[in-house]
Write a structure and sequence with these properties.
CATH class of the largest domain: Alpha Beta
Number of domains: 2
Helix content: 40-55%
Structural class: alpha/beta
Strand order of the largest sheet: 10-9-11-8-7-12-13
Strand content: 15-25%
Shape: globular
Radius of gyration: 23 Å
Largest sheet: 7 strands, parallel
Number of strands: 16
Distance between the termini: 53 Å
CATH architecture of the largest domain: 3-Layer(aba) Sandwich
Number of helices: 15
CATH superfamily of the largest domain: Aldehyde Dehydrogenase, Chain A, domain 1
């Protein structure tokens, strides 16, 4: 068996054996977690929160190494923001763990129940998925969120974070294992791949000899594309956030200014950040100059079409590539459209099915937008930065799934379960 010290020293040539061992241990731990009582899982989560707080200094030291390396490698401001930890952000990680304690345990809950004419009682009941692999980049908080959510849903998890934040991830992971041990649960329930070799990802995509049930990729287009193309197990895809806001002709101007500025600039590096603003031509002259100025006053670059440039100062001409770019930066693509239908058509062509929003005081227009825009999250008169499992009351999330099978939108504890049928009889036989 590999131990923690051996993991750090493993050679690339041994990655296959390492990953196979991790998979076997995860499967064994998953069997224990599947029937673990809620009290034990909640105790582990509470102890994890304590351990994260106690390890704040260690986590910050590890994070400082990561940030230094990221800067030396020329990482973008968005990636640096995602990867940077502070005492406040570490406290938020601990708080999210405690929030998950407060969530209902989905395992064993009855989704539906009905009686058949022959007297059989049938129940559809939530069960763990088994062993989940999470592959992610540049977000050390995902280490805690993913580990805790999988635990609460009765799953073992194998975490493969990016090389950019490996020291931060290791420090957080150590705190999670402290919590598991304090609650008497197997430490192998939350494992972290300790090597940065890309071959480890390849082994996960192969399924670890049948020991991996689901993969959740969370990162850039290249990572998600590789996972979708090569995975031999089901994937909960988290694609890029090409997030749109459409300002309808019935939009309130002051409300629109506040929502657009917050959606774009509160945190530019998250997947719920606004990337394209569409404005109904009926209110372009009255609304657009003020909205653009509010953005520019806060340092946002505007890339607009000819009509936007004709109405606003200091606009960079937009190219076709701007409509398909997730900037994750203080840059916004802006376009004037003929109305609601044209906005929906633009979103259908260029969007990523992540999060899209309409600003309007016309309930009928909002209802039409909700009906026709096929994104995982659709908002009306609210910042797109609410596209977050914590804001949905889920405690935390592994990511925003943009596919259409099984999980969609924020992937929380319920989305990390499957189900089985329980059939109760009194001696019935089938004729």
């Amino acid at each position: 068996m590999w131990d923690g010290n051996m993991l750090d020293k493993v050679e690339t040539s041994d990655v296959q054996a390492l990953m196979a061992d991790i998979g076997r241990r995860a499967r064994a731990a998953g069997r224990v977690l599947a029937t673990a009582p809620t009290e034990a899982k909640n105790r582990a989560l509470a102890e994890m929160a304590k351990a994260v707080r106690a390890a704040t200094a260690d986590i910050l030291r590890g994070n400082a190494k990561d940030i230094e390396a990221m800067k030396a490698n020329g990482q973008t401001a968005a990636f640096l923001d995602r990867g940077t930890l502070s005492e406040e952000r570490i406290e938020a990680i601990a708080g999210a763990l405690e929030d998950i304690v407060a969530l209902a345990d989905p395992v064993g809950s009855v989704i539906a129940a009905w009686d058949r004419p022959n007297g059989l009682r049938i129940e559809r009941v939530r069960t763990p998925l088994g062993v989940i692999g999470v592959i992610y980049e540049s977000r050390p908080n995902v280490t805690a969120d993913a580990g805790a959510l999988c635990l609460k849903a009765g799953n073992a998890v194998i975490l493969r974070g990016g090389s950019d934040t490996i020291h931060s991830n290791k420090a957080i992971h150590a705190a999670l294992q402290t919590g598991l041990k304090a609650a008497g649960l197997p430490a192998d329930a939350i494992q972290m791949v300790p090597v940065t070799d890309r071959a480890a990802v390849g082994e996960m995509l192969k399924g670890l000899d049948g020991n991996l049930d689901v993969i959740v990729p969370r990162g850039g287009k290249s990572l998600v594309g590789r996972v979708q193309q090569e995975a031999r197990v089901p994937v909960f895809a988290h694609l890029e956030g090409l997030v749109h806001i459409f300002i309808d002709k019935a939009a309130d101007l002051e409300k629109a200014i506040d929502i657009v500025v917050n959606s774009k600039l509160r945190r530019t590096g998250i997947c719920g950040a606004l990337e394209t603003l569409l404005v109904d031509e009926a209110v372009a002259a009255s609304h657009l100059p003020k909205i653009v100025k509010a953005l520019q006053d806060k340092g946002c670059e505007i890339r607009g079409d000819a009509r936007v440039a004709g109405l606003c100062d200091d606009v960079v001409p937009a190219s076709e590539a701007d409509w398909s770019t997730e900037y994750l930066d203080a840059i916004l693509a802006v376009k004037v459209v003929p109305g609601l239908d044209a906005a929906i058509e633009h979103i259908a062509r260029w969007g990523s099915s992540h999060t899209d929003c309409i600003l309007t005081e016309d309930d009928a227009a909002a209802a039409e937008f909700f009906k026709r825009v096929d994104s995982a999250i659709v908002l009306h008169n609210a910042s797109t930065q609410f596209a977050d499992g914590g804001e949905f009351g889920m405690g935390a999330e592994i990511g925003i799934a943009t596919g259409r099978m099984h999980a969609r939108g924020p992937v929380g504890v319920e989305q990390l379960t499957s189900f089985k049928y329980r059939v109760h009889g009194e001696g019935q036989t089938r004729p």
